[in-house]
Specification:
The chain is an all-alpha fold. The protein has one domain: Up-down Bundle (Growth Hormone, Chain: A), CATH 1.20.1250.20. Helices cover 79% and strands 2% of the residues. A two-stranded antiparallel sheet has the order 1-2. A hairpin with a 5-residue loop joins strand 1 and strand 2. Helix 10 packs parallel to helix 15. The longest helix is centred in the first third of the chain and has 35 residues. It is globular, with a radius of gyration of 21 Å. The two termini are 34 Å apart.
């Protein structure tokens, strides 16, 4: 019988997931635009920022997820994390070229100093965000659901990145992203919203019934990486490895997606084109979690991968608005539906009472390896990209559609791995 979840649970899930994803969208998609427009960052700079953030996110999630297990609490890390996360986002409002030039008069270039400061502050922001969201919130979600409702909850959780993209795209339409003042307002608004959610969580979140971990803290930190743990949970680690391939495919193109629309395709109205695609993909993703509950990973996972691959093909081959819309829709459906089914499967295989310990392993697969490999592959593909001259005499690179072809190749490797594994399972059953 399906376990019924309370209305307060669903409200907290939507609120914390949505606002957290809005903050991640600003970091993962628009911070690249910020550093590109305000400080003339190169593809190597963007790759370095994404990789540094991925390392910070992984270390944070491993250490803070284990600490939440050791203490046996989720709420304090969620609320305190969101409060500090909001403050760190507000700090970006101070990153202005003229202010940086005044603070570092001996520096050869205020732009280069600005790039460095953005990367450092991104890591600080990631520490608080990963404590609140990657470690505590995801552990709380695992603790608060079971096998009868996890797919439905994960479907809602997985659609939030698209809803967040829609909210950010829509909200950013009011701002000129070439203006320094616009970025100041953006960081003030997003930081304030994240702060407010941290305050609300103090009154809304129900602490799961957890026993503090009996192991010592260091043993709790390394539990998910021990050979004995891997051997005892073989299926979990297989899906974590497959999740790495899935996310590498996403990270090859994602850091450059908005720049591709705006700079390469010259789509000043890309928000109006993307909004309907995002709405439709959000609906599909919300429903797809329920499909996982009924059909399992085998059915829902292959469909998700198929949508993703079809989207890549259209985005690589065509530049017309109609087909770019269709490609973006399929890509987003595949991306978020894939996140939902992988997330549900990993939560399903996570040992009970140890969700915090395993969040570090999950983030290793979702963020660290993909966050280093994906942008590096994307940077390599764009090494010989076309260059344009800006009004101030500086140069900027132009992302090419080759990032989608390369992402397709990575998705193809995942498809081969899943197919071979499926064949082996069928052969064992026959014997």
């Amino acid at each position: 019988m399906k376990t019924k979840l309370s209305r307060k649970f669903w409200f907290v899930l939507v609120l914390f997931s949505l606002v957290g994803q809005i903050a991640w969208v600003v970091e993962n998609m628009y911070l690249n635009v910020f550093i590109y427009k305000m400080f003339r960052a190169s593809a190597s700079d963007i790759s370095a920022m994404v990789s540094a953030s991925a390392i910070a996110a992984t270390l944070t999630t491993v250490l803070m997820g284990a600490l939440s297990d050791k203490i046996g609490k989720r709420k304090v890390f969620m609320c305190g994390g969101y409060l500090a996360w909001g403050v760190s986002i507000l700090g970006f409002a101070l990153l202005k070229a003229d202010l940086i030039g005044a603070m570092f008069p001996a520096a050869a270039s205020a732009m280069a100093v600005g790039v460095t400061l953005v990367i450092v502050m991104d890591c600080v922001m990631t520490f608080f965000g990963s404590t609140a969201n990657d470690a505590a919130f995801n552990a709380w979600l695992t603790d608060s659901t079971d096998d009868t409702n996890r797919g439905a909850a994960e479907g809602i959780n997985a659609m939030m990145p698209l809803v967040a993209i829609l909210a950010v795209f829509g909200g950013f339409m009011a701002f000129d992203l070439n203006s320094e003042a616009s970025w100041t307002w953006i960081f003030l608004i997003i930081g304030g919203v994240v702060l407010a959610v941290g305050v609300l969580g103090c009154f809304l979140i129900k602490e799961p019934a957890l026993e503090p971990a009996k192991e010592g803290y260091l043993k709790t930190v390394f539990h998910g990486f021990l050979p004995s743990t891997i051997k005892a949970n073989g299926s979990l680690y297989f899906y974590l490895a497959a999740f790495i391939l899935f996310n590498i495919s996403i990270q090859i193109f994602m850091p450059y997606l908005i720049l591709y629309y705006e700079v390469s395709l010259q789509m000043a109205d890309y928000v109006l084109i993307m909004a309907p695609a995002i709405v439709l993909a959000s609906v599909v993703t919300a429903l797809w979690g329920r499909v996982y509950d009924k059909k399992g990973f085998g059915f829902s996972g292959w469909w998700s991968l198929g949508w993703l691959a079809a989207g890549y093909v259209l985005l690589y081959l065509f530049v017309g608005k109609a087909l770019v819309f269709a490609g973006s829709l399929l890509m987003m459906c595949g991306y978020l539906a894939g996140m939902a089914v992988f997330g549900a499967k990993i939560r399903e295989l996570t040992p009970p009472g140890k969700a915090g310990m395993f969040q570090g392993v999950r983030i290793f697969s979702q963020v660290l390896v993909p966050g280093i490999m994906g942008p590096w592959i994307g940077k390599t593909v764009l090494a010989d990209a076309e260059v344009i001259l800006n009004n101030d005499g500086t140069e900027s690179f132009v992302p090419s559609a080759d990032i989608f072809l390369t992402a397709l190749a990575a998705a193809g490797v995942l498809a081969v791995v899943l197919a071979l594994t499926s064949c082996k399972k069928n052969t064992r059953k026959e014997h």
